[in-house]
Amino acid sequence: MTGGNKTPSNTGLSGVIRSSFLSCDELIEGVLQYDPDVDKSQLRLAYEYAREKHGLQKRKSGEPYYAHPVNVAKILIELRLDSTSIITALLHDTVEDTDASLKELSELFGTQISELVDGVTKLTKLEVKSIRSRQGENLQKFILAITKDIRVLLVKLADRLHNMRTLHFFTDTKKQERIARETLDIYAPLARRIGMQKICSELEDLSFQFLDPQAFITTTKRLSLVRDHNTRAVAQLSENLTKVILDSGYNAVIYGREKRAYSIWNKLQRKNITFDEVADVYAFRIIVDSVEDCYAVLGLVHTSWRCVPDRFRDFISVPKPNHYQSLHTTVIGRGNIRVELQIRTSNMHRIAEQGVAAHWRYKQGEYVFDEAIGGNPLDLLKPLLEIIEFGGDPDDFLEHTRLEMFQDQVFTFTPNGKLIALPEGASAIDFAYAVHTDIGDECVGVRINGRERHLRTQLQNGDSVEIIRGGRKEPPQDWESTVVTGRARSAIRRLIRKSELKEFRKFGKRLVDRILVSNQLDGKVNIAEAAKRLEAKSVTNLYVKLGRGLLTGSEFLDAVFPGRSRDETKSVYKRELITDETADFFVGGEGLSRGVSLHISKCCSPIPGDRIIALPKRGQGFAVHVVDCEVAIDQMEAGIDPISLSWTAHAKKEGASVGRILATVVHRSGSLAEIANAVGVSKGNIMDVKTLSRGQDFFDMLFDIEVLDAKHLWNILAAIRACACVDSAERVKGQDLE
């Protein structure tokens, strides 16, 4: 079947493949070349079964439908996969598209093959659309399905590759774009994840043609122009390279490869560079006999040509997580052309091209998967499984998974020398969670290369990282924004959810206790009965609902005393201005936590020392306002009762707050520096500065300043007012600027 823009390489089949799709004899002959003991009768039975079941069905190309499963099998034969995978490929569409049943397949071909076909069929039915909606949930099921047997994914990738090669036969452009987007977002990254770079690259290029045909044409044309311009210089470098290596007595195979269109375009987008700045448009692969020869040839190259220092990577000493190994260096050839060299052994080369597919080999009369080459391939998908394990929103899972699959990586080490590969931009917190979930949950500090550093420090290649544990089980609220790995983010969100439930439960229980005491009902009420009336699953669930603001105190009292008169009970809430002595609850320290059950309102930005109240924020707990906040007053006038609050003595130690100052500043040189100096001397920290209005003589400027409490803010305000360049200054709240 011709079905596509590219035809796969026939390397290793000795000319067996001649037609557009294999005949049964050709298919068997192809498998025999690497598995001489294969069960030929089973292969023939599967081939004829697929042809018979698909019958008169046609592809969009007009060819018989069974040509598709045969071509999928052909791709897997080129990867030298086991006969079980080949038979699964031949049968993979029979259950979905014909009257064949899994029971029949099990009887004819065995349970293992019927289960693999079932797995591939389920993946097809999931339709992992890459346009959000159900995508995240379906991708979770997708990952779980392929991790039962990696061959399910290998067959599916071959199936998708052949479908992409024949996608141009579709006339529906929207369907073409949907399939191409799905391929680029899901299948290509998964192929890269398990090391199948050759399939990944082709899937990316084929998708690129349909998703952005103009960019594909432009990039391809530019590549052609560069090729024409540099042909002589590249050929000269190739000739010299071959001569230097062979004359030194090393047995080597040297061939060139040109960077693919999508790879170049993607690099231009990611790094915001021009085409001329792409350093690895050209590359030579140097295949040698041994690891020792790899390093020896590297030395020859570096003594014969100038190398680009920051372009050297040793993936032999530190392999990529998908088991890729090679030495990478970039040299400068004639005409100042940069050419990348990849030096590896033949076994490394096969793994680099075929990934986990390279693990199948003929051993002791049997064609089996050899884990000795690179371990269990399912380990490559372990980070994706761990994201599922921590649960969370399906869209979050999708975001984390795509991040895990797409980003470049940095290679770091534990103090014991264990390699931890992380996405580029990962912090020490990501590292802690990559080592073990408990270590991430309890980390309080880090030593990087022997020096204590901040946990938010981004890690670099080669860093030795030691995590300091402190037993804490509640991560700071800003941790989630500082991590990049899905595993870390999911684990942090799980901890935050757990912490929130604990806080809401505590808040709700205190609220119930206060209501009962205020109404002299303590010990006289069956709270479990009230929970049932309010359709809460338990008393604990009732507390959580009250703490979240999903239930009000009045609704709770109605459940305690159905049909009660409002005059018969006393509200726990107070409308009068409160003092610290009359507060119902306390913020900070042993009290309630900011950012969990209590949220500081932006409309008035309360800080420790302000007189405060709380108003319910449905589903999120309660919002903290200063007592004279206009927004709070409007809500209270609308009938929403406040809860009286006060700060604990330790509240200001839990983290700085932000106070806002509006200053009218004289328009002259050095004014801003004078104000900044005054704030700094007063031990404040300017977080943000905005100019609200500009006049010929004065500017109105808004300063957000990090402070400990209200007293600290007033000290800073006095220091600002003392500046000669300041005409006036005052503390403002959100509504004061509206």
Architecture overview:
The chain has 738 residues and is of the alpha+beta class. The protein has 6 domains: 24-211, Hypothetical protein af1432, CATH 1.10.3210.10; 215-359, Beta Polymerase, domain 2, CATH 3.30.460; 378-481, Roll (Ubiquitin-like (UB roll)); 485-565, no CATH class; 573-655, no CATH class; 656-737, ACT domain (Alpha-Beta Plaits). It contains 26 helices and 22 strands. Helix 4 (83-91) packs across helix 7. It is globular.
Count of helical segments? Answer: 26
Largest sheet descriptor? 6 strands, mixed
Helix content: 40-55%
Q: How many distinct beta strands? A: 22
Structural class: alpha+beta
Provide the number of structural domains.
Answer: 6
Based on Cα principal axes, name the global outline.
Answer: globular
How big is the Rg?
Answer: 33 Å
Q: Could you tell me how far the N terminus lies from the C terminus, measured between alpha carbons in angstroms?
A: 68 Å
What is the assigned CATH homologous superfamily of the largest domain? Hypothetical protein af1432
The CATH class assignment of the largest domain is Mainly Alpha
CATH topological fold name of the largest domain: Hypothetical protein af1432
The overall average pLDDT, rounded, is 80
Uncertain runs: 1-19, 128-133, 569-582
- What is the level-2 CATH architecture name of the largest domain? Orthogonal Bundle
How much of the sequence lies in strands comes to 15-25%
